[in-house]
From TrEMBL:
Entry superkingdom: Bacteria
Boundaries of every Transposase IS110-like N-terminal domain copy: 8-151
UniProt xrefs under InterPro entries: Transp_IS110-like_N (IPR002525), Transpos_IS110 (IPR047650), Transposase_20 (IPR003346)
Pfam annotation, one family: Transposase_20
GO biological process assignments: DNA transposition
Protein name: IS110 family transposase
Length: 329
């Protein structure tokens, strides 16, 4: 498909602002089925050829969920881009509103149209997994906050029978039960799909990779179809090192970017520390690097990437990981 027309879409909970880059026309619709149908009529009135048109929007989570479904059903091509990439491409700007934001998204999309990749439809099982996983993440975060508060109250001497501690303990237990139920439902959905189930258990053949990391990786990669190669996924997770130098004055060590999926990075960090304890090859590598005077954190990051390469390797080969089989890494 050769894209000729770009439409920028700025989404909020209740409304969507649309701007056609070439025609410079604006339309605001409700973020519901009635509004989506209104958009179709507007596109016809503007004589916009849908076969050469792409809608560009930012990642907005659930706000775009119904809109994306509608676009897929009507075979309208769209893509979601990082909000920070759009912001940095604009240079110095003053003022903002929804119409202006939609126009800026459209301008960004038109400039990058040759490099934009259309979002592929996601099957219902994967959508279900994504929503279950995001709900689990939210509950885990809230439970962690309660656990930290509980430790602080104990530190200042509040007795365990006090209602302050008892209420929070009950909430922590309730969160734990719901997290367990969500994880069980995620496993049920995975087990019903042979391709998901196969990859789920292949990943766990790698030491340090458990159920939670396996689930998260399958969901984030759309069952290993979203990313072209492991390096791109490492960038997404924030474990890929990048050079940091300029001319002859700036010569810094390679470093990872802070622009990353922090939840995946945390899971990989826990996985790497577990693998160092139980995987002989990785433990020997870790000790050898430290004896050479290398940084502990940079070494752990290398282990994270080794685990990522192993994960992609076992899925590509469709065979379990064999310890000390170097081609697997």
């Amino acid at each position: 498909m050769k894209v000729q027309q770009i439409i920028g879409a700025d989404l909020s909970k209740k409304t969507i602002d649309l701007v056609s880059h070439l025609h410079n026309n604006h339309l605001q619709i409700e973020n519901c089925l009635f509004g989506f149908k209104q958009m179709l009529r507007w596109l016809v009135q503007q004589k916009i050829d849908l076969c050469e048109t792409m809608i560009v929007m930012e990642h907005t989570g659930l706000y775009s969920f119904c809109f994306e479904d509608f676009l897929h059903q009507h075979h309208i091509v769209f893509t979601k881009v990082n909000a920070l990439a759009i912001k940095r491409s604009m240079g110095l700007v003053r003022g903002k509103n929804d119409k202006t934001d939609a126009a800026r998204i459209a301008a960004y999309g038109y400039e990058k149209k040759d490099n934009l990749k259309a979002d592929e439809p996601v099957n219902q099982e994967m959508k279900r997994l994504q929503m279950l996983h995001s709900t689990r993440e939210r509950l885990v975060k809230q439970r962690s906050g309660l656990i930290c508060a509980l430790k602080e109250y104990k530190y200042i001497g509040i007795p365990e029978k006090d209602i302050i501690l008892k209420s929070q303990l009950q909430m922590i237990k309730a969160f734990g039960k719901q997290i367990y139920k969500l994880e069980a439902e995620i496993k049920t959905v995975i087990e019903k799909q042979p391709s998901l189930n196969q990859n789920f258990y292949l990943l766990q053949s790698i030491k340090g990779v458990g159920e939670v990391l396996s689930m998260a990786t399958i969901i984030k990669t759309n069952n290993f179809t979203r990313f072209a190669d492991v390096r791109k996924f490492a960038c997404f997770c924030g474990t890929a090192p990048f050079e940091h130098s300029s001319g002859s004055s700036i010569k810094s060590k390679t470093r990872v970017s802070h622009l990353a999926d922090k939840q995946m990075k945390t899971l990989l960090d826990l996985s790497a520390k577990t693998a160092i304890q139980y995987d002989k090859e990785l433990r020997d590598f870790y000790i050898r690097r430290l004896e050479m005077g290398k940084s502990k954190m940079s070494t752990i990051n290398i282990v994270r990437n080794k685990i990522l390469y192993r994960m992609f390797a076992v899925v590509k080969r469709q065979t379990p990981f064999i310890e000390n089989y170097l081609q697997a890494a």
